[in-house]
Predict the structure of Beta-ketoacyl-[acyl-carrier-protein] synthase III.
Amino acid sequence: MIERRLSGVRRVPVLEGVAGWVPPRVVANDELPAHWQTDDTWVRRRTGIGTRHWVDEGTSTGDLALEAARGALAMAGSPLVDTVLVATSTPDHPMPAMAPVLASRLGLGSVAAFDVSAVCSGFVYGLATAAGMIAGGLAERVLLVAADVYSTLVSPDDRGAGVVFADGAGAVVLRAGEPGEPGSLLAFDLGSDGEGHDLITVPAGGARDRAEPGRYEPVDRYFRMSGREVFQHAVTRMTESSLAVLKTAGWAVEDVQRVVAHQANARILSAVGTRLSIPDDRIVSNIERVGNTGAASIPLALAHAVERGEVHAGERVLLTAFGGGFTWGSVAMVWPDLPSA
């Protein structure tokens, strides 16, 4: 586990733009496949989700990432960055990484560009990566995009994952700034536990598949998750990580004015809030309308919170996530005064 406070360094990342993007196709609970044998009440009771967005044929992760990136750059007031990071579990291709292609589509030239792979914790890991590059003088302005299209990765016969996972993208622009100024990211906590690697996984499709011909079935190329076991791990790790990053930042739980957690499931969000003793009105959530969008969930929730006026300049904000690997992480930051979305 890594815990770091950035107030002791001269350069810290400062948030200056955020945007989200979801595909236009909205799928309500009553429109889910009939063979899943669900209804609106059943889905809402178990997940808190009412609608989600799925891509249409011909739309890829990169297309969603492009739209979110454009929005974040527009809010930041400049299309110029020197580093592009993309967090995703559903890349357009196994190789090359998505970030160089995205940089090219944005017309950014020969900037540094690479992907971050930490499943649903990818955005938090990406923030930490950007922070390290800015602190070390390797970057001045970083575009971080998180995007996933889980509707293409979940088996058509997997009701449990199918009702939860959705498609979306979120992006932020970070610039080098001074510790303590509005928008600054102050502290990080990162961790992992590879013993849980098989509880959130896509077993086939990689080098292991090619190294052991005949081992995997076609269904093994789809996403799978052991929901009950993951629930407990997610609640425990996000709670512990949140407390660790607050300690590193020198904040008490009572100091936190907004919590933006990975939008995994409404029951997980509620359980984390309860364990942290944070009131429901301080927890930002958009899962009811967009579902679980993987790595995109935190920046997409932030973008929607800005649109709805739910987060304000100067507020102390806690970000926390949990994903496959297992991976988890948290960030403590002070919210900036952003232009209207």
Summary: The chain has a mean pLDDT of 95. The radius of gyration is 19 Å. The chain has one domain: 1-341. Residues 17 and 77 are 8 Å apart (CA to CA).
